[in-house]
Amino acid sequence: MKLDARGLKPEELFRKLKQMLSSCGSNESIEVLVYDQVTAKRVKTFASMSGCPVEIEKKEDLFILRITENTCGCAR
C-alpha cells in the first residue's frame, strides 16, 4: 500500500494512515511519501506508537517511510 502524503494537511495524513493501518493485511507493508524530516519523524512516531516498525529513507527531495512487520493494527 502506498500513501503519497506530500501536500496533505497533518490531520488528513494521520486520518488516512490510521485507516490504512487498520485495514492492511499481515503480510502487507505501507509506504508513506513526505517532503520534510519533521513530518517523517511524526509519522514514524505515530506508527511506532501503534507497534509498527518503521524505516525512513531519504531519497533526493523526499522521505520514504516503510511500515512493516504488521504487529500493529495491520494484523487485526
- The amount of helix comes to 25-40%
Query: Which descriptor suits the 3D outline?
Result: globular
Mean pLDDT across residues: 87
The biggest sheet amounts to: 4 strands, mixed
Strand order of the largest sheet: 1-2-4-3
CATH topology-level name: Translation Initiation Factor IF3
Name of the top-level CATH class = Alpha Beta
| Unreliably modeled segments | none
The assigned CATH architecture is 2-Layer Sandwich
Helix and strand content put the structural class at alpha+beta
Report the end-to-end length measured between terminal Cα atoms.
16 Å
Number of strands: 4
Strand percentage: 25-35%
Summarize the helix and strand pattern as letters.
EHEHEE
The CATH homologous superfamily is termed: TusA-like domain
Rg is 11 Å
